[in-house]
Amino acid sequence: MLISALLAGGAAVVLGGVAVQRSPVLAGEIRSGFPAVRKRQASLLDQLKSAALELDDQYQRFMVKKVDPLFGGTRSAALAEIVSAEETLEIGDYERQLNRYLAAAGATLGTAIIGAFYPPVLIITLGAALYSTTLIFRNGYEAIVIERRLRMDVMGSLYFIGAYAGGFFMAGSFGLFAFYLSEKLVMITQDRSQKSLINVFSQQPRTVWLLVEGSEVEVPFESLQTDDVVVLHAGQVVPIDGVIEEGNATIDQHMLTGEAQPVERGVGDRVLTSTMLVGGKIHVRVEQTGEATVAAQIGTMLNSTASFQANIVSKGEQIADKSVPPSMLVALIALYLTGYQAMVTVLGSAIGLNIKITAPIAMLNFLNVAAHNGILVKDGRSLELLKAVDTVIFDKTGTLTLEQPNVAQVHICNGYSAEEVLTFAAAAEHRQTHPVARAILAEAASQKLPLPAIDHAHYDVGYGLRVRLADKMIRVGSDRYLTMENIEIPAEIQTLKESAQAQGHSLVMVGIDDKLAGAIELQPTIRPEAAEIVQNLLGRGLDIYVISGDQEEPTRKLTETLGIPHYFANTLPENKAAMVEQLQSEGRSVCFVGDGINDSIALKKANVSVSLRGASTAATDTAQVVLMAQSLRQLPYLFDLANEFDGNMKAGFAAAVGQGVVVIGSALMGWVGILGGTLIWEVGLLAGLGVAMLPLRKLGQREQ
Fold it and tell me: Where are the alpha helices (DSSP H) in 323-378?
């Protein structure tokens, strides 16, 4: 055999020499140290690396799109409604790594099963196990050396060493797969939809209209420079920070500042990104764009603000980690009394691992129940934290009130009737879609007022609204606009305006021909369900606050109407967060309910954060809970669900402890070994899973 090998080697050398002689190029490469060969090898390695990365990416996308929704399809669908598809697919490096280890653990278990019938395969099992346990060993090392505490990773490391060293491949592999499955389930319960919030504020229109030498020219937004003049019309969101050079406008800035009442802005006034032109047309000289705007600065502050939940560990993980020290102590006792196998059996009793699997499954089921009832809980830890909440803070504008105001009263003058004023205003506004127009049209509809024919109406939307109806010229807008149109505003109407503004109301002036016919007073619309919801929460013993960027009087009036005991007005966005922290420093657990950009920092600081679908992107990105029906009616049910989840967790814990006691007791008595202990653990796991599935059973019964 040795001779054959030598002959084969000699033949290879001869053939290689002939090949070199016949190929001058190859001979040259050999003489030059094989550079071309090395280049081809490097290229091949790059190709293999690229293929591996592509395969991994496809696997990660498969896990997110196909596997993860299996654990909460309704919740996944709700999340997709408020987060784009690409954002939903974004997962962190740790979860990517976890998915890889889960696949490796699955392969380990599969080869262990085959190895039970064909032992040579166990060498593959051992190799896969060495890779799969890397993360567990690393986490265990960090827990002992850096954190100086015992947790599940430490006990898991000892168990897997003991199981594989003792030749118990099946038990070790099953435990390994269960361990990573539990980690994956915990990950699914947490919020993975969050993106860099700075991008929220830098989302701008693709094009804007620029004033160039007296003409309006459409240009890419990215080409804007400081001192350019942008033309903005009613209904548009302001994409820049700047100063008005020409025109007047009514601007709704509640999403940014929290002020309910639209403000009048004219030449020399500053306008900000993320506010909206309710009416008018303005030329704005650009001061800041993109990340330099006020809105983007709020985003930067938001990015640098630590979330309350960032370091919160789920209750299941807490219980699991707390079970480690006593389990390890009992394992040492078992080693002394009964022997090696008893010790490994106790380590594998895994009270903590049982809880780590059943707790997230229970949480996922409750999250799915919540989604069925119109509540998207993005981070399951919020459901746990709600149980401890004793203080609820509401934003005012957009949360307790609706975006669209309502008509409080119609004031008249110069001999016109309230019906005439409202009729002509509604006829003029019928093609407009902003909240003021909708409020006027809704009131006219409620009074069943017939509107004049408007087929030949002419709209001149600039500083206000001018419409010709038959033989009359109708003007609708602010007092500033009507004054510019040479219509006198009587003193009594000016007094009414000041009184209305003090209450957070606004006046829309209506001129007919050359006289003021009257003024329509608009007030914020309180959500129809708000009073009932507030009383329900107060009945639960919760303390309630209102924090608003709006003025003192309208905020006070709202709290009195709804029966809310505490309020803060004229509050800046950063001060909202400071007030949340102040209440937390007093030992309170705070739930913040808000909808605007100005609420986002406070939402991030709160123990539990709630927003409504349709709110600002910043609010729904930051909030851990989103009420999908755009109503507060689901809020009490959210608290009920948190109480039910707490009860389910206690029942699951009891099931885990029960199986743990049986395994440990049996191991100490020498009645069971590793395989018997694993079997009992699986029975206990099934019992825990039965408890975890209870919310879905209730949901099924409710739907029948």
Answer: 324-337, 340-347, 351-372
